[in-house]
Amino acid sequence: MFSKSCEYGLRAVIFIAQQTTKNNKVSLTIISEEIDSPQAFTAKVLQQLTRNNIVKSIKGPYGGFVIEEEKMNTKLSEIVSVLDGDSIYTGCGLGLKQCDAKSPCPLHHRFVAIRNDLRSMLESTSLQSLAEDLNADLAILKR
């Protein structure tokens, strides 16, 4: 459903959020190792998230990535929007170009319900809540 950029971006931001709650800054190397993603690809995704003020990059020998306290309330929908736009909410479940209520594919009506549930989950889930789940060992980020 999500692009690879979005998958890695979500995993990276959630990991950074978890580390931020522990007052840790994390390097690109550690992030890419922890979320099992290529470092160069992770760097591009983090650059995009930094430009959109979701994560903060601190330069220097004691630098790294963090999420500012007020950004811990960021909803996953905002991250998905930055990385994938809104296509996840509008695209066809079978990837067809011509699929809508007037000309539905065989999955259209079922997929609309799934998309609505996904949107609801993304709009109601914050980085803070996921960081807390990770800190309580209720979630994992590696495959």
Automatic annotation (TrEMBL):
Record Pfam families: Rrf2 (PF02082)
Organism, scientific name: Aquimarina spongiae
InterPro entries: Tscrpt_reg_Rrf2, WH-like_DNA-bd_sf, WH_DNA-bd_sf
PROSITE patterns, A to Z: HTH_RRF2_2 (PS51197)
PANTHER family: HTH-TYPE TRANSCRIPTIONAL REGULATOR YWGB-RELATED, WINGED HELIX-TURN-HELIX TRANSCRIPTIONAL REGULATOR, RRF2 FAMILY
UniProt GO MF annotations: DNA-binding transcription factor activity
Higher taxonomy: Bacteria, Pseudomonadati, Bacteroidota, Flavobacteriia, Flavobacteriales
Entry GO terms, CC: cytosol
Coiled coil, from the record: none
Name this polypeptide is given: Transcriptional regulator, BadM/Rrf2 family
TM segment ranges: none
Gene3D superfamilies cross-referenced by the UniProt entry: Winged helix-like DNA-binding domain superfamily/Winged helix DNA-binding domain
